[in-house]
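Hey, can you fold this one?
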Amino acid sequence: MTDNHQASRLDRFLELSSIATAFTVFELWGTGMAAEYLAVVDRVVGSEVTDQLLDVYGRVTRDADAKAELDILIRHELLSDPTLGPVARNIVKLWYVGIWYALPRAWIDANGARSADATFTVSATAYTEGLLWPAIGASPPGAKPPGFATWTEPPRIPVRATRALAT
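Sure. Predicted structure:
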């Protein structure tokens, strides 16, 4: 695999993740988890399934004329697909909480068991960099302290300009 192909795959993974999580590609890069999450998906489901997911996402984005149409196509072509849907939903969970959840029994029955498919936390960094924390305007407990005496003020939940697809 060439470096250009790998960068292209990572870019496409980030674009798909951005649409699915409602965070910008820039924000996702900022977590430092992009390459590790793509590697997790490849390790668990195989690069063939990952490439199929990225290819379908690429086709859908080319076919969509508007954001609303893109949402519909992603829901129909990716999230509703019995093979790709569970993987796409797991990618969203991966970004938000840093945990890969074991795929559902129906996916395993249709696609075969994978030795790496189990529920696991990717890393301690995945926990602290989870999108859950900025989404709710909080710091992860035990990491990234918010600052002196910030507990004296009510929490502020940030308003996001974009929205995630319902999974």
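The longest strand covers residues 99-100. Let me know if you want another pass with a different chain boundary.
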